[in-house]
Write a structure and sequence with these properties.
This protein is of the alpha+beta class. Helix content is 24%, strand content 30%. The protein has a domain of 74 residues: hypothetical protein PF0899 fold (2-Layer Sandwich), CATH 3.30.2320.50. Strands 2-1-6 form a 3-stranded mixed β-sheet, covered by helices on one side. Helix 1 crosses helix 2.
């Protein structure tokens, strides 16, 4: 389960940027092609924040849409799942978006 390592990376990033702050909310944007399971990340985040400045913080996750471009026909499409299959039938696609995992906002508790 790599979500625990991802949760720890999020915590490290936030605490490095906001040392000593008490954080109440971390907002993430996760692409459907990132390989991250949102429910597992939520569970791991709650465990990993214990004893840190993020203890009790809420993790808010929004999903970024995936977009691909077919190298055969040149059209852009949204894949139906992890197999990047263009409507023309080609599996030769370039990912334009949807692999990201980024912190979009952090709310510091008053």
């Amino acid at each position: 389960m790599h979500e625990l390592a991802i949760a720890q990376g999020i915590i490290d990033t936030v605490t490095d940027r906001l040392p000593g702050s008490r954080v109440s909310l971390v907002s993430l944007e996760i692409g459907p092609l990132s390989g991250v399971v949102a429910d597992a990340l939520l569970f791991c985040f709650d465990l990993a924040t214990e004893g840190t400045g993020l203890a009790g913080a809420r993790l808010e996750i929004s999903e970024q849409p995936a977009r691909c471009r077919c190298r055969e026909c040149g059209s852009e499409f949204s894949p139906d799942g992890p197999i990047l299959l263009c409507p023309c039938g080609s599996a030769d696609a370039e990912v334009l978006s949807g692999q990201d995992l980024r912190i979009t906002a952090v709310k510091v508790a008053a």
